[in-house]
Design a protein that fits this description.
2 copies of one chain form a homodimer. Chain A is of the alpha+beta class and 245 residues long. Chain A has 2 domains: 19-159, Alpha-Beta Complex (Nucleoside Triphosphate Pyrophosphohydrolase), CATH 3.90.79.10; 161-234, Winged helix-like DNA-binding domain superfamily/Winged helix DNA-binding domain (Arc Repressor Mutant, subunit A, Orthogonal Bundle), CATH 1.10.10. Chain A is 24% helix and 25% strand. Chain A has 5 helices and 9 strands, in the order ββββαβββαααββα. The first copy, chain A, has helices spanning 67-79, 143-157, 174-185, 191-200, 226-234, and strands spanning 23-34, 37-45, 54-55, 58-60, 86-92, 103-111, 125-132, 204-210, 220-224. In chain A, the strands form 2 sheets. In chain A, strands 1, 2, 3, 4, 5, 6 and 7 form a 7-stranded mixed beta sheet that branches. A two-stranded antiparallel sheet of chain A has the order 8-9. The first copy, chain A, starts with 22 loop residues before the first strand and ends in an 11-residue tail after the last helix. Chains A and B meet through α1 and β5 of A and α1 and β5 of B. The first copy, chain A, binds a DNA duplex (30 and 30 nucleotides) through α4.
DNA sequence: ATTACTTATAGTATTTTTTACTTTAAGTTT
DNA sequence: AAACTTAAAGTAAAAAATACTATAAGTAAT
C-alpha cells in the first residue's frame, strides 16, 4: 500500500494510514416464496463471534475484489446459484456493529425461484434454513436491522418494478401471482380485477399449458416476458400495483 | 485493534488483518433549486489527487465515527448547515476507484432550500459552486457515476415522497411548486389540474400572505405541513405524482 | 352418465379519478 | 378607466379503478 501518503494529509492530525483500517463486508438477504409465505435464507454460524447463532449469509470483502462481485461470490458460495437478480439496498456503518473491528457492511438482496434453489452450507456455516419473515429468530450482529431494512425495501420496490416474478416458478398461474402479491403487500385483491390489471400490462405470455394434478378446473400457465418489459419501459411504461391505503 | 484474530480466520489462507485495510468515505450530493434549474454543489479540489478538478464534497470516515454522522459532518464542514434532510442512496466499491488505496464510498444526498444556504469552502477546497445538473464538468474519481446515480435516485424518489418541498423556500406559490416538479420530472403539467392534485392531498397550509413585488395578481403563499404528512402516512396515504409515459 | 362442486375466466355496471379545457377573479401597468 | 397578466375556480368528457355477476371448464361423487 505504498501509494498511500503520496497524496493528501488529514486535516485533524490523524495519520493518513489510520483511515485505512476498515473492514468491508457484504450481507445477502435471499428471499424465497414457499407455501404462500415470504421466506428468507439464514445460516447458522459455526464460528466465533456469535457461534451457533442464525445470521445472514455474508463475509468480508477481499481487498482485491469489487464490491458487486463479492456479493455474488458470497451468494454463490452459499447457494450454488449464479446469475440471479441481486441488488444493493443499504450500507450499515455504526462504529460498534462488529466485535472484531470496524466493519462497514453493504446489504444486497436477491429473489430466487424456489423451484430450482437448493442451499449448500459452506465452510463456516453449520446449517442453512428458510425462515418465514413473519417468524424470525434473533440474529447475530446487527442483522435484525439489516433484514428489516431489506424487507421494507422489497415491499416498496415490488410496487413499482415487476420483481415479484423472480420469486415464482418460471410457469405460474394468475392466482399464484395474486397470492404472492397479497403476501408481499399484505392486501387482498379482487380476483377478476387483479387478472385484468396484470393482463392489461401485457407483460405475460400465456403458455399452451395448464396446471396439472389439481382437483378442479386447471388454470392456464403464464410466463413473465422480460424482453417485453424492457421494450415497454423505453416507451414510458411504469409498472405499478400500488394499493389504496 | 487487538480484538482482531480473537475470532475467526479467513477460509482462503489470507491473513485476517489483510481484510482490514479498507478506507471508507462519504460523498455528498447536495441538490438545490435556483432559477428554475436543479443544481448540485461541487467543490474544486485544492489537494492531490485530482488537484484543481471539480468533485463532490466528501471525505474519508474516521475509524471512530458512525457512517451517518460522518455524512452530516462532512456536509456541515462544507456548508455550515445542520439538520437538513439527508439520505443514503448507494455505495460504490470498485477496486480501483481511488488512487490512494482501496476506498469504498457511501453516497448521500440532501436537498437544501436556496434561500438559506451559503456554502463555505473548507480546508482542502479551493472553491465551491452550484452547477446545473444539465451542464456538469468532468469530475474527479468516479464522481460522475456517483452523481448520475444520485440524480436518478432523486428523480425516482420525488414521485413517491414529498421531498420536493425541501428544495423550495419555506413559503412558495403553487406555480413555483409546479415549476420545480416540471424541472425534476421533465414534464409539463396542466396548471389547474396540478393545483387540484396537490391541494387535494391536504399537505399544504395556505398562509395569510401573498407574493410581493410582482407586476400582476400576486399568488397565495403556501407552506408544507410536515406534521400533517406524518399523520396521513399513518392512515395509509401514499404521496404520488407519477406522470404518464 | 348425471349431478354436485370447485375454481377459472369473461363480462358488466357503477363509481372514482384523471384529463382537457373554459371561465371568472384579482391584481398591476399605462 | 382600459388593457393586460396571472391566479384560481369550474365543468364536461374520458379513462381507470372498483364491485359485482354470470358463465365456462374442469374434477369427484352418486
Amino acid at each position: 500500500m505504498n501509494k498511500m501518503n503520496k497524496y493528501f494529509l488529514s486535516e485533524n492530525n490523524v495519520p493518513f494510514q489510520d483511515y485505512f483500517n476498515f473492514g468491508l463486508s457484504v450481507d445477502c438477504v435471499v428471499f424465497g416464496y414457499v407455501g404462500e409465505e415470504i421466506k428468507v435464507l439464514l445460516v447458522q454460524r459455526d464460528a466465533e463471534p456469535f457461534l451457533g447463532n442464525w445470521a445472514l449469509p455474508g463475509d468480508l470483502v477481499p481487498l482485491d475484489e469489487d464490491l458487486a462481485d463479492s456479493a455474488s461470490n458470497v451468494l454463490q458460495n452459499l447457494t450454488g446459484l449464479e446469475n440471479i437478480f441481486m441488488e444493493q439496498f443499504y450500507t450499515f456503518g455504526a462504529v460498534d456493529r462488529h466485535p472484531a473491528g470496524r466493519v462497514a457492511t453493504v446489504g444486497y438482496y436477491s429473489l430466487v425461484k424456489s423451484d430450482n434453489y437448493h442451499p449448500i452450507a459452506s465452510s463456516w456455516v453449520k446449517e442453512t434454513e428458510w425462515f418465514s419473515i413473519k417468524d424470525l429468530p434473533k440474529l447475530a450482529f446487527d442483522h435484525d436491522q439489516i433484514l428489516e431494512k431489506a424487507v421494507s425495501t422489497l415491499k416498496s420496490r415490488v410496487k413499482y418494478r415487476p420483481v415479484g416474478f423472480e420469486l415464482l416458478p418460471t410457469k405460474f398461474t394468475l392466482l399464484e401471482l395474486q397470492a404472492l402479491y397479497e403476501a408481499l403487500l399484505d392486501y387482498k385483491f379482487d380476483k377478476p380485477n387483479f387478472r385484468k390489471k396484470i393482463l392489461s400490462m401485457d407483460l405475460l405470455v400465456q403458455l399452451d399449458e395448464v396446471q396439472a394434478n389439481v382437483s378442479h378446473r386447471p388454470a392456464k400457465l403464464f410466463q413473465f416476458d422480460e424482453m417485453r418489459y424492457i421494450e415497454l419501459r423505453k416507451e414510458g411504461f411504469a409498472f405499478d400495483i400500488t394499493v389504496k391505503g
